[in-house]
Amino acid sequence: MEQKTKKATNQRFSYVVLAKIEPSDYQRPTEDSRVDSIVKNFDEAKLGTLTVSKRDGRYFAIDGQHRPAALRIIGYTHAVCEILTGLTYEDEADYFRRQGEDKRALRPLDLFKAGLIAKDAKCLAIEEIVKSNSFQIGFAANDFAQIGAVQALFTIADGYGYEILDDTLSFISNTWFQMVKATRGECLLGVAEFLSRYGNIIDPADLDEQLSNRFLPAWYEYRDVVGRTQLSKKARNTFCRVLVKHFNKGLGSKSKKRIKWVD
Asked: Which fold has domain 10-98?
């Protein structure tokens, strides 16, 4: 005999008076800064549905503690809510801590693809730069041309600018062509840091063979030191320092072409 799955709770959707929604003490305290941010950047399309538990004739917020407070400031009196009934106080707390278990957070790549369709200016600009350097954004094992480190691309665009992003991809293409791991996030960020400091000395689009060969071992040395992907400021500075070291190889100690590393 087939066993039916027991329904945990009853659910319906309806408008609820905001003044009747009470906070729940198993949630984090309401933060004024988050409420202010919602008010300042309010977009009704992104509001979503509040989840409340109706217990003993009262409504308790399970998901959306900050949104009711923001809506009241804006001037709303009601909000569409997912109303759950049949939960005890203990059930509510368990529901709150488990509600995200089956949800998978959106990856930077997912957000980027959606941004392209939405014609987001930043996504379109990054896509154009990536393609102009003969790369693609996406995940593919053992494919040098595929860049999966989308967050690193955004970090470079935001922190260093689009020109440095363009130079970074050009540098990697000319220096570590077909080295799959050369497009990992820490490598992208390390090169961006290097070019932001010393780009006036090196033209990434016009690296001669001698200079490219000087930089070639840098990735292997850095990989052996770090051993795994790290996107911190410390990690990118470490890679930048390795690039400085290899640039200076073959130059005399008094050569004016030497780069001086400054922390």
From this structure: 3.90.1530
